[in-house]
Write a structure and sequence with these properties.
alpha+beta, Jelly Rolls, DNA polymerase, domain 1, Herpes Virus-1, 12 strands
Length: 446
């Protein structure tokens, strides 16, 4: 253990919920300037100043979009939340909220109306063929193919006939250039995917801008994950202890206090908070607390005890290959499915809301350390859960429809409960013998 070293990621806890959807500022500025010139007959100001600093109109636009556009922000008095998106960590005053709303009215409210109308029209056109969706690869005639493209200026154009020389756009997944009317192009890199080749597949081309996973992951600020340093395990433990002490002092801290502070950070009311997280560590490379027969046996462990642990059905290395498991038919060592992942976290490290990989069940074993809290939603409430998530974070889902497979987004369970979605929680803790402990979990975790 003294020699165990692992890579970490920098996880921005304040961005797990309070973040804007990925948006290329250059693309936004291009479309916004074109709107002003063509529909308003004027040019955009080079600078818009708010509290002595340049105001990022792209951020402001996306923040207001998150909370249901201007009328809804005014009605629900959400300018404080909008302010946190635009200026995270800054102090909020009634004056600053008022000024921000006035700046939005002056510069963006007309563009909002234009943008919404444009997306309504796109949404109508995108519904073509959706009602006839019966199979993964629809039969189409190449001569009548339509697809989404951009010209050099970034404008969308419709290609009505796909001539032979135009078969330059191929699906990055299946490498086919056919079925172009269901080819979805990334609005940043312009690479294409058939909507039935995406994971999970889509039934129609989504309205608005869409970004591929590669482009989303390339935006460091988008999801708050940045590669961190390599840490020896003991050095990481000491750092984690210092961070917890800095937040809560030396006194014993209740879970209620930790939970309250965590959700305050997630919802953006505390400021910028980043932690280190050793996540998705492939145990075939790094090993874990579960021994394998070919691992080196510590001298302090007897041979019989070692062999018993190596062969135990509760050893997560053996679990996928047990009698009765359909995963026995899988002959590849797929990380996270056939090979366990190892996670080494600290205070506020987060495993976000998600559908389990491949919609399989999940098992988690806590080797040592502080207790962990799990939130879960019954599987039969999955549709209601996703509906609430989409209504609360519409811009994020518009940009990435498979958001719930990405483990990058949090929403306070109280919000889900207020909207009728049952949420259960359980504390996972290590217990030394001869302690007795009993617990239960819901049928399926999200």
């Amino acid at each position: 253990m003294d020699l165990f070293t692992f890579p970490t990621k920098l996880q921005a806890i304040h961005q797990l919920q309070a973040r804007s959807a990925p948006c290329d500022p250059k693309t936004f500025r291009l479309e916004y300037n074109r709107f002003l010139e063509e529909h308003c007959g004027k040019k955009a100001k080079k600078r818009v100043v708010f509290e002595g600093e340049d105001l990022d109109l792209c951020k402001l636009f996306n923040a207001v979009k998150r909370f249901g556009w201007y009328d809804n922000v005014v009605k629900l008095k959400k300018w404080g939340e909008v302010f946190r998106f635009v200026r995270p960590g800054s102090k909020i005053s009634e004056c600053s909220k008022h000024v921000l709303s006035q700046l939005y009215c002056e510069h963006l409210v007309d563009y909002e109306e234009y943008y919404c109308q444009l997306n309504k029209e796109k949404n109508k056109s995108c519904k073509r063929g959706a009602s006839g969706w019966k199979k993964c690869e629809p039969e189409v005639e190449v001569s009548s193919v339509k697809r989404r493209r951009k010209n050099k200026e970034g404008e969308r154009v419709e290609v009505h006939k796909l001539e032979e020389e135009e078969l330059d756009q191929i699906c990055e997944q299946c490498r086919s250039g056919l079925h172009g009317e269901v080819m979805l192009l990334c609005d940043r890199c312009n690479k294409g995917w058939h909507i039935y080749c995406l994971s999970p597949p889509l039934k129609r081309i989504p309205p608005g801008n869409w970004y591929c996973l590669e482009c989303l992951n390339s935006e460091k600020d988008t999801f708050g994950f940045v590669p961190g340093k390599q840490f020896p395990l003991e050095a990481f433990r000491r750092m984690a202890d210092r961070i917890k002490k800095k937040w809560f002092g030396s006194a014993a801290t209740s879970w209620v206090q930790l939970e309250k502070k965590f959700w305050e950070i997630v919802e953006g009311s505390v400021g910028e908070v980043e932690v280190m997280y050793g996540s998705d560590l492939d145990t075939s490379v790094y090993g874990s607390g579960f021994p394998r027969q070919f691992d080196q046996r510590p001298p302090s462990v007897e041979v019989d005890v070692w062999n018993e642990y190596c062969a135990s059905p509760w050893n997560l290395n053996n679990l996928p290959r047990l009698q009765g498991s359909m995963l026995r038919t899988v002959h590849q060592n797929i990380a996270g499915v056939m090979v366990p992942w190892l996670y080494i976290g600290m205070l506020f490290s987060s495993f976000c809301w998600h559908f389990e990989d491949h919609c399989l069940y999940s098992m988690n074993y806590l080797h040592w350390g502080e207790p962990k809290c799990w939130y879960s939603v019954p599987g039969n409430e999955a549709h209601a859960f996703e509906k609430v998530m989409r209504s609360c974070l519409p811009d994020l889902f518009e940009a990435q429809p498979d958001l719930l497979f990405q483990l990058v987004t949090m929403l306070n369970p109280s919000v889900l409960q207020e909207r009728g979605v049952p949420v259960y929680s359980i504390i996972q803790a290590t217990l030394a013998p001869p302690s007795l402990y009993c617990g239960c979990s819901t049928p399926k975790l999200l």
